[in-house]
Amino acid sequence: MINLTKVYLVGISDCESMSIFHICKTKELADKRLEEVKDNLIKDWKKLDTSLQKSLEEYCKKENKPIYIDNMYKEMIDHLEKNESNYPHETPFIEERELEE
């Protein structure tokens, strides 16, 4: 007889790839890990947004062009904070699977 145990995969997927960061024994632990993954994504995107805006400002000043504001990262962060779809960008997920013992 085969024993099957539920496990929960926690990771990030986008339109081209998927990464798994945690395999959890309970849904509660998976929910906690999902929040950590989401918080880390938001933190990384805030850094990237700051860097991008700085680069755009420097480029526009150098080329004597109007300053362009790119809101992509802000929109991605907003979608994650509202638990909305973030496709095609990175989106944290929990997936229930069965593990054979």
Account of the protein in words:
With 101 residues, the chain is α+β, with helices and mostly antiparallel strands. It has one domain. The protein is built from 2 helices and 3 strands, in the order ββααβ. A 3-stranded antiparallel sheet has the order 2-1-3, covered by helices on one side. Strand 1 and strand 2 (18-24) form a beta hairpin. Helix 1 runs antiparallel to helix 2. The chain is elongated, with a radius of gyration of 19 Å. The termini are close together. The mean pLDDT is 91.
For the largest beta-sheet, the strand count, sense and barrel status come to: 3 strands, antiparallel
Radius of gyration (CA) equals 19 Å
Q: Note the gap between the termini.
A: 10 Å
Give the ordered list of helices and strands: EEHHE
Please give the share of residues in helix.
40-55%
Mean pLDDT: 91
- Helix count? 2
Unreliable stretches: none
Structural class: alpha+beta
Strand content: 25-35%
Strand order of the largest sheet: 2-1-3
Coarse shape = elongated
Domain module count: 1
Please provide the count of β strands: 3
